[in-house]
Fold this protein.
Amino acid sequence: MISLARFTTTCLHHFLLAVLFWQLKNFIKFIFPSFIMLSKRLSFRFLQRISRIEPNPIQYHTVRTPLSLRRSFISHSNDNTSLFSQAKAAWNGTKTTWYQIPVSLGIAYIAFYQLYKASKRESTPLPSVHVQVEGPLYIRLYASLPLRYLSQLWGQLNDIVLPVFLRIPVYKTYSWLFGCHLDEMVETDLTKFENLGQFFYREIRPEVRSIADTKSAALVSPADGKVLHCGKVVHDEIEQVKGVTYSLDALLGKNPANLNADESLPTSYIPSTGKSLFFCVIYLSPGDYHRYHSPTEWKIDLLRHFAGEMFSVSPWLVEKLRHLFALNERVSLLGHWQHGMFAMVPVAATNVGKIILNFAPKLFTNVPHEELHVPLGVAVEEELSESIGKPLRFNRGEEMGGFKLGSTIVMVFEAPDSFKFDIEGGQKIKLGEAIGQV
């Protein structure tokens, strides 16, 4: 049965696109005759200069459009007005006729076309790791917005160099709105940050964050933020909010065999005997420190870049949009720590959507569709031990990368059944503070 909400949302989306293209067509019909007139005038003046041919006192230029829209312009050879003034007068004197869209015919076509596409899509089985937007109508309308393009545009705006006299008021206003702690920064001179992107990615002094040792915590927070949720993975499902789950395979991709402690285990995320899989989700707000660090001593074996959506990861939307973290663009870092499998997933979000990894300078996230080599939701893998030439190991508290604006970090790890969290959902946490212990 076709989802009525999905069908209605898709129809509205395509109807708005049809209106946009219709108005664009009318605009082209409006500007094209003026463009022809200007081209003729420029060509005539060029020929006049090189040949010194005297034109007739009055020339009539008429352009006919497919809609029989006529525009006549009188040009005087002895007119001393500038070309810009003549073009402006021609533009203002052009009569434009607007025609109404046959709404009933357009809606009927869109409805039948979307009915056909929805029937074909739902009759075709999707891969087990593929997820789609689920939720009420307003969530589907939100998901239809061009958030990837808006995020790319915002990223370009963030890279614009600000005048020196604007930097201090702009950064202080931002800090006041979002609660940034400017006293923790390494660079206290705000004029040194040329643009907003550099300010978002600011460094903090090491002494303002203390990293818990292995005796007091088996795992520490990789960043400043808010704990959205934490708990145990049950039947390969991660609980996004109470009662709403998403697949572990959808978030991380299928498990390669080398991530299991026991090589005889199948290629799924199955913990060893006496152990379980746990997860923790930390949300970085726009005012938080935007770099993330290693939460423990571990080795990264595999990097997977999932090109995806750019939905907001705010706590409100996390409660409304299922599979949010498996839909958004993300980088899955898969490896091992002392207790078994360990995965850390930086997830991108609306605005900028740029994920930085210090050890992967060639990683580019939120690129335009035409530059993508795979469809959205499909991962590109890289064996780090082969590309770098040596195992990639991180110590506790060591910087790994960051975001060019706030986002989310999801950790999935194997640990003994005795592992206990020292945190709970909704709690604010700082880099280096204890997450849990065995």
Q: What stands out?
A: Residues 310 and 350 are 5 Å apart (CA to CA). The radius of gyration is 29 Å. Confidence is low (pLDDT under 50) at residues 53-78, 121-128, 260-267.
